[in-house]
Structure formats: C-alpha cells, structure tokens
Amino acid sequence: xxxxxxxxxxxxxxxxxxxxxxxxxxxxxxxxxxxxxxxxxxxxxxxxxxxxxxxxxxxxxxxxxxxxxxxxxxxxxxxxxxxxxxxxxxxxxxxxxxxxxxxxxxxxxxxxxxxxxxxxxxxxxxxxxxxxxxxxxxxxxxxxxxxxxxxxxxxxxxxxxxxxxxxxxxxxxxxxxxxxxxxxxxxxxxxxxxxxxxxxxxxxxxxxxxxxxxxxxxxxxxxxxxxxxxxxxxxxxxxxxxxxxxxxxxxxxxxxxxxxxxxxxxxxxxxxxxxx
Length: 276
Ligand code: SF4
Fold this sequence. Notes:
The chain has helices spanning about 5-15, 30-40, 40-50, 60-75, 85-95, 105-125, 185-190, 190-205, 230-245, and strands at about 25-30, 130-140, 145-155, 160-170, 210-215, 220-225. The protein is α/β, with parallel strands linked by helices.
C-alpha cells in the first residue's frame, strides 16, 4: 500500500503520478509550530491550540526590527548609490521598543544591532547580489498537512541558480541540549527549517534551489549547504510524525534547558516540580 508520504516524494521529484484522496482537513503547520512541538508538545498546545498569549520579548522585537530593516534595505538597494546611513536610518525607523525590560537593555540591543548592520552593509556593498524575493510566503501540501512559511530572501546567483537565505539575528542560539549551536556547519546541512523552505520554494516556483543558507548576523557570516533527496525524505517523515501526534492529541510536558524562558512556565505542572 502506498503511503501519502511516498506520494508526496514522487510528486516532488517526478516519477509515478499520484492522485491522493483528501480524507481529512489538512493540519496547517509552520516550521515554528513543528519545532515548538518537538521542543515540548505541551508548550505547543498552550501556544497554538489554546492560543494563550506569549510574553513580550526583547529577542522577538529585536529580530523583527532587524528583519524589517533588511527587507526595506534590499527593496531600495543600489550598490552605486546606497550608503550606510540609509541602512541605519531604516534601522531607526523600524525600531520596536516594546519588549525591553529597561532602557539599559534596550540600549544594549540597539548598539549590537547597529554593529551587526554596519558589518552587513560592508559585505552587501562588496557582493551586490540582487534578491529576487524578500519575505516571500509559501504553502504546499505534504501528506495530510499544509506547510506554510516565509522565506527571508531568495537570491539569484551569478550562474542563474537560486539561493534561499534565512537571517539569524539572535544574540546567541541555544540548541536543545543547552549548548551554543551557532556556526556549526553540520547544523546547516541538517537544518530542518531550511529543508522546509527548500521544498516551499520548489513547490511555489517550480524551481529547485541551488543552495540554502543561514546568515548569522551576529558574526556577519553566511553558511550554506545543498539538499539531497534523502534529507528531504527525513523532513517528510518528521512532519508526518509530528502531525499524527498532534492529531492524536499527545501533549506532554518535556522539560529541557529552555524551560526557564518558557512563556507558560507559571501554568506548567512539570516546571513547578523543579529541575529535571
Ligand atoms: S515550562 Fe518546559 S515543560 Fe513546561 S510547557 Fe514550558 S517548555 Fe514545556
């Protein structure tokens, strides 16, 4: 018996045509939803099923400011005319001041953002790749799910290939076992978010991206990788597993190093019991 997963894979890479029967309403999932479920399924329930509000966060506001600034910058970017002050003015215009706990904290983030953007500008002016798309949204069917997302940037490379770029604006990123995970080349190779974006680009534009990249603004460094069919099979498997557990209403707390930063720790029965 053919599975929906293998049907999707054939559709993606050609071969036998399939005519999947849609038996249920698709479960709509984004990368954030899937990764939240993987981190802790109870948190997923609080956030995406019960729709409990999240708390203001300096990291969230900072990330939004940087993303909006770079989007505006590239909309107008002309390597012969655009100057650093144009980028810094956009940064000022897009600054969101709501999530910071104090003026000192806000100032600290503001300075860090300015430093990152100054470095970014120097790289952009030397490598003026013109983006084809900025913050381009996509959605596509995968099995009994609908996957959606927004790609920060898609560039056309000098050889005509397409590159998917996702900005990472965080001051630092902690992986699921509590280690700093920035700038690990293996991470780019296996990055689930980039794989979903690869598929989203292929489905929306019928164009296979040549490479996928994470741009770590903190280090002004971009790490790139390609995608192989077997990696994409894994993506489909992960999505299928998460979706079936959500449909079965499996929402268990999963304690981890990120619990102290969880917006729902006050109402989480497990967090109150103390550390693991
Ligand atoms: S505090 Fe930890 S275990 Fe509780 S909901 Fe949040 S992430 Fe899950």
